[in-house]
Amino acid sequence: MTDLLIATSIPYVNAAPHLGHALEFVQADVLARHARAGGRAVRALTGTDDNSLKNVRAARAAGVSTADLVAANSAAFTALHEPLELSFDSSTHTSTDPAHRETVTRLWRAVAAAGDLYRKAYTGLYCVGCEAFYHPAELTDGVCPEHRVPPEEVAEENWFFRLSRYADAITAAIDSDELLVQPAARRNEVLSFLRGGLDDLSVSRPAGRADGWGIPVPDDPDQVIYVWFDALAYYLTGADGWWRSHVRREHVIGKGILRFHAVYWPAILLSAGLPLPDAVRVHDYLTVAGAKISKSAFSTNQLVEQGAASADPLHLVKRYGSDAVRWWLTSEVPRVGDVDFTEDRLVQRHNGDLAGGLGNLVNRTAALTSRIVDHDVVPDGFACDVLGVTEEKINSALLEFDFRAATDAIRAAVAQGNRYVEQTRPWAADRPERALITLIALGNGLADQVGPFLPAGAVRLRARLAGSANPPFRRLHGR
Questions:
Q1: Catalytic residue among 144, 251, 261, 393
Q2: What is the pLDDT of residues 51-65, one digit of tens each?
């Protein structure tokens, strides 16, 4: 069985985390937990991207040192792990982890040894939000298509990476699904970008423009390594030796950073003689009132003005619990397309699926277990059949990076369980043992299958079936 290395992207820490970050963390965590439950060895990675120019500018605007701003916001991202029940094995902070600096330096030297780095003067349009140069043709009405602001014109001398040398190899890898990009719309987007031709990539910045913040270019201290070259190397740092051929390497990322992961990162790996990722799994965005949730809007209270203070994941967990937040993020977010968040939708989904669905099925079963006299009765085939189909559907859905389909399978199993209760009527039967033992088997099996999605909820489901008086899910009330 192939080991799994799975990693989120690492967010800039120019501001506090929002619900969009929680989405990616939870998706990666579900995939990691599901693989572990299936007997696979897993290493799950996350961290923070500390060495960006936007962090430097945010610190200037706040009147604090970059190190202090990065430390405070990095801690805020780390503080999400316990409330959201995340099970990452490694969390790399790129400005303070000495192993990361060593990794970046080794990677730079490997790419240089391949003859893929050269220095030249350059003038271009730079979006600090993306930390990327844009061609005029890539802009939308003169503004960055991602951040909707005009890029800055920058003239400087940088180190460049021979990205163009690897266009054909990357195209072939994606065409053949050696490098799987999901969903198909994102795969097509990358292939279109590749077939449009690649320019070489600027991979350093003058140290003066970055206030000296970042990892110095080896043997050229007047330059710091471009934040994306630095950040992408985190996967090697966090892998801690796992980036090897017999491990399946998967990325979970947002659509706005697709080219960095499906084009730039594979090219750097090919240059350094390292294996490619096996999969890049891409999610779309969460919105509030139709607007993308972003750190800039969140930190300047624009979202609050739209009635969306609830874009704070810690606020949501404190008010509604981790089960409600994790369930909404996995059951409401489609495989393709943005989705609008409201607290009312979160409450409705929790109450319908968990309190009124799975929790109710388990409560009905547990309330009748005192009627079991003969504990040696074996369950009928119903539970085994339902659990087998549900497991197959969940496995298939998660392979396709479709969390909504996976949770749909759980809902369908709960509906079948409730129909079985109505058909067998164990509260009225003279000998209800077989039906009740079947329902206990079904409930425990569903707890196992919901475990990657709701770690704490699964524990409470098992406890209720074992005799706890506490309901596994309580009904929530909205704002």
A1: 144
A2: 988 899 899 999 999
